[in-house]
């Protein structure tokens, strides 16, 4: 069979249509539900309400609180992941003793299930029986409310996110660093450029496209955070650490308010889409400069 043989369509189109149907049907069904008043418990007949669900959400202070919380966790954790990950990638890119051991060790947190990481972190940060506070008490320091104070709880979630997902940043940035041409650095050394000048003048600009992609992927993924928050804080204290996905879970699986949850999911999609477009628009001039 050649590339232009029309017989290939007999094999490609059925698979394409199946994948399209699997992807499009839930989207259309969810969009239809978002315009309905639909509750399973107590069972209520579906009733068309138009954009009322969206209006209720946009005027709900809890929704905007979860947007701010999710954005704060995502942006702060990804920014620190990138800085730490870039530093570790630069270190691992050098030919140092034991580099293979360190590469394997640094990548291990990424391979652990987020729920398992959250369970361990919850035990370590337990305000009364956690080993971290026990060590602090032994050394004469007071117990800290890692999971019971709003600010400390947010910081704890961000710390866990950084620990688990920095290896992902390291993995991609290290691949990018290893693909940079050596002759550029040789020319810089001939010009007596310092390591700091080489970083800002060569490494960082040449790594900008892959850095932008890594940050974009991690921000989108961080906005979907639910397992770590659900296990560690449950959205508490109060709703201080409640994220958009956890809010949708509470409405959909505890209140069984499917219409409201569907509308929340589409607004969630809108928030991520708007932030993504703003991010790409701000970064576009710099990416074109270093093409």
Write the layout of secondary structure elements.
Blueprint: H1 8-33, E1 36-39, E2 44-48, H2 52-58, H3 61-93, H4 99-107, H5 114-124, H6 131-138, H7 150-178, H8 182-190, H9 195-223, H10 227-232, H11 244-254, H12 258-289
Antiparallel strand pairs: 1-2
In the CATH scheme, what's the topology name?
MetI-like fold
**If you compute it from the alpha carbons, what radius of gyration comes out, rounded to the nearest whole angstrom?**
24 Å
Q: Count up the helices.
A: 12
Largest sheet: 2 strands, antiparallel
Strand content: under 5%
Give the overall average pLDDT.
86
CATH superfamily: MetI-like
* First and last CA, distance: 38 Å
| Spatial order of strands in the largest sheet | 1-2
Number of spatially distinct domains: 1
The percent range for helix content is over 70%
Annotation, overall tally of beta strands: 2
Shape type? globular
**The level-1 CATH class:** Mainly Alpha
From the coordinates shown, what is the CATH architecture? Orthogonal Bundle
């Amino acid at each position: 069979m050649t590339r232009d043989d029309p017989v290939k369509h007999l094999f490609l189109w059925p698979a394409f249509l199946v994948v399209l149907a699997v992807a499009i049907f839930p989207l259309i069904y969810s969009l239809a539900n978002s315009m309905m008043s639909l509750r399973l418990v107590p069972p209520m007949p579906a009733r068309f309400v138009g954009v009322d669900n969206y209006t209720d959400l946009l005027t709900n202070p809890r929704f905007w609180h979860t947007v701010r919380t999710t954005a704060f966790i995502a942006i702060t954790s990804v920014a620190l992941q990138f800085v730490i990950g870039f530093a570790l990638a630069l270190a691992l890119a050098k030919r140092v003793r034991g580099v293979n051991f360190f590469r394997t060790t640094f990548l291990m947190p990424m391979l652990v299930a987020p729920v398992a990481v959250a369970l361990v972190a919850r035990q370590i940060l337990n305000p009364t029986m956690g080993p971290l506070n026990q060590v602090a008490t032994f050394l004469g320091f007071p117990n800290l409310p890692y999971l019971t104070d709003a600010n400390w709880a947010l910081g704890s979630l961000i710390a866990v996110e950084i620990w688990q997902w920095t290896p992902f940043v390291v993995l991609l940035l290290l691949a990018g660093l290893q693909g940079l041409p050596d002759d550029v650095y040789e020319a810089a050394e001939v010009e007596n450029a310092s390591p700091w000048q080489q970083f800002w003048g060569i490494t960082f600009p040449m790594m900008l496209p892959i850095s932008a992609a890594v940050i974009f992927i991690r921000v989108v993924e961080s906005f979907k955070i639910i397992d770590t928050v659900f296990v560690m804080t449950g959205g508490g204290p109060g709703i201080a650490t409640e994220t958009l996905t956890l809010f949708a879970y509470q409405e959909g699986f505890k209140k069984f308010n499917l219409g409201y949850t569907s509308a929340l999911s589409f607004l969630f999609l809108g928030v991520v889409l708007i932030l993504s477009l703003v991010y790409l628009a701000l970064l576009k001039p710099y990416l074109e400069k270093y093409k």
